[in-house]
Amino acid sequence: AQSVTQLDSQVPVFEEAPVELRCNYSSSVSVYLFWYVQYPNQGLQLLLKYLSGSTLVKGINGFEAEFNKSQTSFHLRKPSVHISDTAEYFCAFYDKVIFGPGTSLSVIP
Amino acid sequence: DADVTQTPRNRITKTGKRIMLECSQTKGHDRMYWYRQDPGLGLRLIYYSFDVKDINKGEISDGYSVSRQAQAKFSLSLESAIPNQTALYFCATSDADRGGQETQYFGPGTRLLVL
């Protein structure tokens, strides 16, 4: 069965510290992978996506993610977070569009 | 102006009432989706439509129905609302016209409370 797992439901981090949000997927077919961000009281916005090619993908707001096929992972990273990064982050993949349960990132001043 | 709009943004209703949530898009996409979001569960797909004549059930379609009135409009109905349908509902469109590579664009959400 296809699924997406986000191991951390909540991640608190101090401002200007680095952060990694973890995502693992399970699929027997080729996948396209996405990270979406949901700011408070808003809909989801696309952060970045992996379709093919380079396994390191750069997105908006200084985020990047690395596709690792052997570990079936697509972890999201940012070297220095800002207060404005406080949001819910969702990993998703497309064969059928399947979302993970989300990780709530709280940036502490 | 927003590309994907949802009305209403907030709604409180009573058990047993019929309610309709509406979604409109100006992106010209053929594909439209309805999701519900519950804490700790992420987004779950209710229904999706690949064009005006194509409607498909998603993961959790029971208790819901949809209508694709036009390419730009996709409505979700709760025929007889129940409290466990209290959730945040999102409409989305996608540009899946290039070999299945799909990016979704979301509306702002409708917060529904069923008493």
Question: How would you sum up this structure, described in words?
Answer:
The complex is a heterodimer of chains A (109) and B (115). With 109 residues, chain A is an all-beta fold. Chain A has no helices and 12 strands. In chain A, the strands form 3 sheets. In chain A, strands 2, 5, 6, 10, 11 and 12 form a 6-stranded mixed beta sheet that branches. Chain A starts with a strand and ends with a strand. The model of chain A has no long low-confidence stretch (mean pLDDT 90). Chain B is mainly β and 115 residues long. In chain B, the strands form 2 sheets. In chain B, strands 2, 4, 5, 6, 9, 10 and 11 form a 7-stranded mixed beta sheet that branches. Chain B has a 4-stranded antiparallel beta sheet with strand order 1-3-8-7, with no helix packed on it. Chain B contains no helices and 11 strands. In chain B, a hairpin with a 2-residue loop joins strand 5 and strand 6. Chains A and B meet through strand 5 and strand 6 of A and strand 5, strand 9 and strand 10 of B.
Key traits:
heterodimer, A: 109 residues, mainly beta, 6-stranded mixed sheet, 4-stranded antiparallel sheet, B: 115 residues, 7-stranded mixed sheet
What is the average per-residue confidence, as pLDDT of chain B, rounded to a whole number?
Answer: 90
**Largest interface in this structure:** A-B, 21 and 22 residues
What is the mean predicted local confidence, pLDDT of chain A?
90
Oligomerization status of the protein chains: heterodimer
Largest sheet of chain B: 7 strands, mixed
How would you briefly describe this protein structure?
Chain A is mostly beta strands. Chain A is built from no helices and 12 strands. Chain B has 115 residues and is mainly β.
